[in-house]
Amino acid sequence: MNIRKVQCLIYRYNPDLQILLLHYSPPRSYWENLTGKVESGETDFECIRREILEECSIDSGEIEDVVRINSFQYSRDGSIIQENVYAVMISAEAQVDISGNPEMEHDRYKWVKPAKAIDLLKWDQMRKAVEILMELKGEYITSS
Predict the structure, then answer these.
(1) Residues of the chain with pLDDT under 50
(2) pLDDT tens, 11-21?
(3) 80 has which bridge partners?
(4) Residues of the domain holding 29
(5) Residue 45 lies in a domain
């Protein structure tokens, strides 16, 4: 079985570049970028808008830019998973509210500088997404 997923590296300028990290609820208990499974008949962009609304209560009108920055595959439980990674810029005024996320998948969130994101993110591919974003923006990773 083939599965498509999106990973959203959500960021804003407020005034400096900040990255939104979501904390996966126990028992997993780790920091991550928003990820979601692309549903049948759904485009990646439709999935991004749906996931950001479901998980963070951020309306698509608050999304200012979406750029695909990476892609990778892995296998799990006999399935091949294709994960496309997007940098998603939202407005500085957008308010995050995770209280309505399905099954309380995430129990908290925080905005952090890129260096702190790299320190906190569990998965290599998520840390790589931060590095790619910084390169695209022509910014250097400074202390957290």
Answers:
(1) none
(2) 999 999 999 99
(3) 2, 75
(4) 2-137
(5) yes
